[in-house]
Amino acid sequence: MLRVQRCELDLTLLPQPRNHPVGDAPGRIEGACTLHLHNQGRRTVSRVHLLLYRLLRVTGATQDGNRALALRQSVRHLPVRDMPNLYVNRVSLALAEDLGPGQETDLHLRYAGALVGYRELFPYAHDAVHPDIAVLRPESLFYPVVGPLSLEGLRRAWSVPAFRVEVRHPADWTCLLPPARGVRLGDGATAFESADEAPGLHLFAAPYTTARGEGVLVHHRPGHQEWAQAVSSAALFARSTLQRWLGPAPAAGPVEIAEIPPGWGSQHLPGLIAQCGGEGPEQVFRDVAHEVCHFWTPSPCADPHRFCDESIAHYLEDLLVGERAGGGRGDDALLRHAAVLRERPGAVRTPLASAADGADVDIVSRHKGPVALAALERAIGKERMFGLLGSWARDPGAAGADAGAFAHFALRALRDVQAWDIGRFLDDWFFTEQAPFDPDMSPGEALDLSLARYRTAS
Q1: CA–CA dist 252, 245 (Å, integer)
Q2: Taking the CB of residue 192, how many other CB atoms lie within 10 A of it?
């Protein structure tokens, strides 16, 4: 098994001018990448397969600095379940010298081309180099990865244990690559370096202005000061409220937010929130609050069922919206979840610890999961619920855990609860293929009826 030990990337962003004859044509990138590879398997490796974005072409490859490599590249279909339209540039390199078990080598590639995102695969992946902003995320394969054949394999492959990245960009742009801090090398160049593993390289560059608040930094595009103020206010409210409810977040430090265009997919990343701009004030609050909630959800995307990140974040988001409106959750959030689940009865029956990448995983994690947590809160009380989620967020075992691990953690933490059969409740919601509540009923009545079966004689 080949593992990338370190990635060194020199990247040039080449946006098209605004008066380009093709209109809003995407720009290009030029890259020079060195991958330090370690053969952790038991077999000798003589050929390496890499994946790049489908429009990026490799122009040259060497091994250990000076030995040119024969290469083949072609746009290939990658047979990933539930993603029938995934095409990539598959690059096959014949090594100049075989790599035996335990041995290491450096591969150096030069490549270039246009990049216009994977919108047919990921609705948010509008990644591109535009005249006034560049967004490049690992899903768009703007740097080479060792070629797996599954989505989970891709997620592992685009992770980088350590990296050095130097980006050349328009002189008036600011470049961000979390969690590393950039060092300006002069007009139009920024360098980043990290010895810590990152879940892929995420690059954001634009003529940003930074608005600084109380523990909140917002990098916004020109003319968007009012939006930045609303974002800063929402982030501050969400963070202070969650600290009061759940205790300190596992990762300390300021909340740092970078604006990206509307519809490009807000994300919570280590060290940065990428936040869509241009929305109305209510949606801005909800979106920002949701991303701040992820400071209390360990290891985002480590759980294939998406309960440990998305279900918990949506549950807390609903509470924050209610708190801002004057306290409580209200039925609006539960009505919204129930309306979605009515249209997907299969998702209602899918156990929270069984949902995986597929048609229903987002529905289960973003709608059934928050309803399950609301039902548990209804049984044990809000204060006990906050204690449970705060303890889970700071528990060392939560890193890399999945929905089943959370259920077992909750069972241990709530073993002293006498009025409710917590074990049966968790089993029905997390592990049993059934509908634990009726989404056709009003949410309050449905949860009361559901909880009645778990009340004990004591």
Answers
A1: 16
A2: 21
Return the DSSP state at 437: S
Angle at the Cα of 122 from the Cα atoms of 224 and 234, rounded to 5 degrees = 35
Contact 131, 17 (CB under 8 A): yes
Other C-beta atoms closer than 10 Å to the C-beta of 315 total: 24
pLDDT at 399: 79
For 273, the enclosing helix (H) or strand (E) is strand 272-276
- Burial (0-12, 13-18, 19+ Cβ within 10 Å), 427: middle
Strands 203-206 and 133-136: antiparallel
Residue 216 · residue 238 · CB < 8 Å? no
For the chain, the straight-line distance linking the first and the last C-alpha, in angstroms and rounded, comes to: 56
Query: Tokens 């994300």, residue?
Result: 267
Q: SS3 for 154?
A: helix
Could you tell me which residues are beta bridge partners of residue 220? 209
DSSP annotation of 419: S
pLDDT of residue 80: 67
CATH topology of domain 307-452: Neutral Protease; domain 2 (1.10.390)
Residue ranges of the chain whose pLDDT lies below 70: 18-25, 80-83, 120-124, 148-156, 299-304, 328-331, 356-359, 457-458
Residue 44's pLDDT is 95
| Distance separating alpha carbons of residues 216 and 214, to the nearest angstrom | 5
Instruction: For the chain, give every domain's residue range.
Output: 2-207, 216-294, 307-452
CATH superfamily of 2-207: tricorn interacting facor f3 domain (2.60.40.1730)
User: Whose CA is closest to 91, among 101, 80, 78?
Assistant: 78
Cβ neighbours of residue 325 closer than 8 Å, sequence gap 6 or more: none
Judged on CB neighbours under 10 Å (0-12, 13-18, 19+), 457 is exposed
* CB distance 194 to 40 below 8 Å: no
CA distance 395 to 246: 13
| C-alpha span between 327 and 323 (Å, rounded) | 4
